[in-house]
Amino acid sequence: PQGSEEAKAFVHAFLKRSMPKKTDETIQDLLTRKAVVLEHYSKKKTKQKRKKTKGFTAKQRREMRLFEIEPEQQRYAIFLPLHELWKQYIRDLCHGLKPDAQPHMVQGKLLKADLHGAIVTVTKSKCPSYVGITGIILQEFKHVFKIITKEDKLKVVPKLHNVFSLELDGFISYIYGSKFQLRASERSAKKFKLKGTIDL
């Protein structure tokens, strides 16, 4: 066993290592009070800055023609599998589209759903040439739909002043384009008012 002097020396050396910023007098004062709080110095971690990946600007995307569909790919038959996927997606979203489903619930789901792949028809329009256009939605932008028809023609139809209808499993829904001028990503977070009349 250690002697009293050796024990004192060990305790003093241990406290000196544990509290390097305190003087011998301060350590001795703490010992007389019989209460010692050992200090802990943690190493500061240097935070690594994350590099933000820069995407293309709108001008660069236009110059690269990223959103343009090549003429040889503008065929209705190519996008029929996309329509089948969309139908299954809507059935899952609306829990099966059963006959007893409440129309306002289904309508609310469709308002926020992704419409890429849906077959839509222009039922009303201020421009008579748009009425009757039917096809699969290939692209949705803030102000227009790009639709491929059965005649393999790509139509750009504005949302403003147009009413679109889509049918799935006997349920027909109407989209008022004037109140639908949002990007697909923005629409999913928007709260729509289902009540009230909408004029064309």
From TrEMBL:
UniProt entry keywords in alphabetical sequence: Nucleus, Phosphoprotein, tRNA processing
Keyword Phosphoprotein listed: yes
Phosphoprotein in keyword set: yes
Subunit structure: Component of nuclear RNase P and RNase MRP ribonucleoproteins. RNase P consists of a catalytic RNA moiety and 10 different protein chains; POP1, POP4, POP5, POP7, RPP14, RPP21, RPP25, RPP30, RPP38 and RPP40. Within the RNase P complex, POP1, POP7 and RPP25 form the 'finger' subcomplex, POP5, RPP14, RPP40 and homodimeric RPP30 form the 'palm' subcomplex, and RPP21, POP4 and RPP38 form the 'wrist' subcomplex. All subunits of the RNase P complex interact with the catalytic RNA. Several subunits of RNase P are also part of the RNase MRP complex.
GO cellular component: nucleolus; ribonuclease MRP complex; ribonuclease P complex
Stored InterPro entries: RNase_P/MRP_Rpp29-subunit, RNase_P/MRP_Rpp29_sf, Rof/RNase_P-like, Rpp29/RNP1
Entry similarity comment: Belongs to the eukaryotic/archaeal RNase P protein component 1 family.
Name this protein carries in UniProt: Ribonuclease P protein subunit p29
Entry function: Component of ribonuclease P, a ribonucleoprotein complex that generates mature tRNA molecules by cleaving their 5'-ends.
GO molecular function, one term: ribonuclease P RNA binding
Gene responsible for this protein: Pop4
Annotated GO biological process: rRNA processing; tRNA 5'-leader removal
Cell compartment(s), UniProt: Nucleus, Nucleolus
Superkingdom per UniProt: Eukaryota
